[in-house]
Write a structure and sequence with these properties.
35% of the residues lie in helices and 25% in strands. It has 249 residues and is of the alpha/beta class. The chain has a six-stranded mixed β-sheet, sandwiched between helices. The chain is globular.
Length: 249
Amino acid sequence: MTTFALELDAVTKRFGDRVAVDDLTLRLEPGTFLGLLGRNGAGKSTTLKMMTGLVRPTAGRVLVLGIDMAKDPIAVKRQIGAMPEDMALMELLTGPQYLRFVGRMHGLDEALIAQRQEELFAILDLAPGPRTLVADFSFGMKKKLALSAALLHGPRILFLDEPFEGIDPVTSRTIKEILLTLQRRGVTLILTSHILEVVEKLCPLIAILDDGRLKGFGTLETLRQRGESLEALFVDLVGGERKGELSWL
């Protein structure tokens, strides 16, 4: 039997009377690079949080590398890396201290942590002062640190929520190269972004959510009807209306 990298089996999440994710079923082969798309409030971040064990589904189940998230979340979290949109960094540590903490949580030895931290900081052009606290980092620097933490232990699945927000063009290109290299090495990647041009260039597989439901899933080529752009496809599937005029302008 095939062991999928990720399986969502009829996953639903409710917050009170509101259904954030509704009966979502999805399966990803190892080495897949999925672009997870949707409008604000469509359920993307909630779906990512269920995939990474930060939120429990109300119904259904999540399997990561064949492991049931509800039954053995620690085993799952050893295999994955996650860069949430809110980042949730320990801001009273320095950057190296934070990565040392993350590395030790994953059971890495001190020498390996130091070597990987130095390499990550160099490739991402992240060079804070030795005593600079994370609280004093710019938004872009925090993004780079969050990505470094997600990559430090060599995950088999990587979850990225808006990884290019606040990142300069040079570092954006570096991050794209890192992600494509990981995919070639068999790592499974799930990325959310509102920058559709980035998703169109990076992600061979697309999933589009709206009101917590899966509106489209497949390669861009199979989802397109008339060779339209990803933006046109996205708007068609989520029922977007043309707007843009203000009464006083």
